[in-house]
Structures are given as structure tokens and as C-alpha cells.
Known about the structure:
With about 350 residues, the chain is an all-alpha fold. It folds into three domains: about 10-110 and about 200-240, no CATH class; about 115-195, Flagellar motor switch protein FliG, alpha-alpha superhelical domain (Annexin V, domain 1); about 240-325, Flagellar motor switch protein FliG, alpha-alpha superhelical domain (Annexin V, domain 1). About 70% of the residues lie in helices and about 0% in strands. The chain has 20 helices and no strands. It has helices at about 15-25, 25-35, 40-50, 55-70, 80-90, 95-105, 110-115, 120-130, 135-140, 145-155, 155-170, 175-195, 200-210, 215-225, 230-240, 250-260, 260-270, 275-280, 285-295, 305-325. The radius of gyration is 25 Å and the shape is elongated. The model is unreliable at about 75-80, about 105-110, about 195-200 and about 335-340 (pLDDT under 50).
Amino acid sequence: xxxxxxxxxxxxxxxxxxxxxxxxxxxxxxxQVMKFLPPDDIKAVTHTMADLKPVSIDQIEEVVDExxxxxxxxxxxxxxxxxxxxxxSGVVPESQLAEIIAEMEGRVNQSIWDRLSGxxxxxxxxxxxxxxPQTTALCLSKLHPVTAARIMSEMPKDLRDNxxxxxxxxxxxxxxxxxxVEVALHEDFMVNLSLKMGGDSHARMAExxxxxxxxxxxxVLEGITQTHPKSAEILRSLLFTFDDxxxxxxxxxxxxxxxxxxxxxxxxxxxxxxxxxxxxxSSLASRTRRMVEQExxxxxxxxxxxxxxxxxxxxxxxxxxxxxGEIDLSTGEEGGELVQ
Length: 340
């Protein structure tokens, strides 16, 4: 096998360290930790996880060691903002604390221009060619000179001359307008580029969100949608919930339910609508189907907690089987919806 490409070490922000820790945990552990975070902190951490650049093995070990040292000294993880700030203040120098707190509150973001300047011009140039010359002129004026020069060298002469003239006469842009351009660049370029380059941050984030309760999943996705709508759209396409089970093909349904205990299946089917239930029952062997139908018809009450737990176990099993290639998790067929 070819050796993995070297990852250049860089200074990690506090949120990047938290995101790195969560992404090195198992899905169950990361989900348990995030359950104790308030919604604002979950949004901040998930945004960072979606945008996290590669972190070297050595840096991961340093972050883990640093966390263990701080945790051993008595730092606690709780769900209130003051405790989170206390944890972060022990991770980074005091000189950076104000900036980090500002980042947590959404007032400061990593410069999109610095990030774009690190992208090869072969990827940037085609994007800029499709923009209005005035927008291209603004973008090039914000990028590092070397990067801007390389992009301009890829332009046709007429366009290059047009953009150069606009750059010379470009007036100061108000912050609100510049922010619109920065957000558009992030959503239309950075997110899509990360997928084309094979980044797996969305897949990893989807794995963690999949382990959350339904209401927590929706809270996280709603938060991401507000600032990173395309990332939220990508994540939704990668998620698999109990509702999606009836969208699987019949072979996958049969394979899945052959591996599930009847009592667990009966518990999970409580509260589902007729269409959902019939789709599941149709995938069972005749004898198993009669047994499950008989149990469901008895009408024995069950707590919502027990029902949710049974559904979670079935969903986790489906995800595991899908990862092993035992079933196909693609959901092209529409199925029934759960009755809450």
C-alpha cells in the first residue's frame, strides 16, 4: 500500500482540539459526550468538525495527552457555558482566550481568504471564471498575491484585463456585503471542494449524529442549516434513521429482520402506522410474521423509552450491517412515516 501523505502540523484552536477529540472517540462515546452540551455548544463543535482540516497522528496524541492532563487536574465537562469556557481556558494560552471565546459566540471565523489561498489555482480558476468580473476582482484583491497571480494567469486575456482594471478601481466594500460574498464562497466552493477531494468529515459527523436521539439530531441539523445549509443537506443525505428502514429493498429488509429478536421487533413496531408496519411484516417469514402480529394485537402497553431503545438498536444494527456490506442502505424507495 502507498504511504499516507504527510500532514503538516499547525496550531489547533480550542474548538479544533475539542472536535479532534470527539472524532477520535467511538460513535457511542462521542454521542454521549455531546448529550451533555447545550445547543449552542453543539452547533459550534459540529461546525468545526465539518470544516476540520487533516490532523496528524502526532498532534492527535498531543491533544489527547493535553486533555487527560487537564481532566486529571480537576477540569470537568458540564453542560453550562461557564464550565466549557473554563475547560477551554486551560487548553490554550491566555493571550488567545478572548479570540477563542469570540469564536465560540460566532463573532469571529477563520478567514475564508486564507483558506482559499491554500487551494491549488487549478481548482480556484474555473470557479472564478464563472463569476461576474466585479466579484472576481473583489475575490482576487482579498487572496494572497501569489494565489491571485496564478489565477489571473489562467484567465483569457480580455477577461484578465477587465478584472485587472476593476481591481485598480475597486472601492472599499462594506462589511455586510463582504460577509455575503464570504458566506457564498464557503457554501458554493469550500463545501463542494472538500467532498470532491475525498474529505470524510461529513461522513464522520453523520455517524455521530446517527447515534443521537431523534430530537437531538433535528436540533443539530437545524443549527447547522442556519449557517451551513449545504453541509446540512449533505449530512441529511448521509443519515439513516428508523424511519428509513421501510425504504430499503426487500432483500435488505429480510436480511436485517432475520437478525433481530422478535420481542425487540414487536417493541419497535409499537406506535407505527399501518403502512410502515405492513412493509416490515411483508419481509418476515410466514411463521415469524404470525408471531409478531399476534404480539402486536395483544396491545400490551410499553413506555416510549422502551420503544425508542428498541428502534435505536435496530437502527444501529442496520448501520453496522450496511458498513459490512451485508445489506444495502440506499433508500431510493419511499416508505411510511412514524406516528409520534
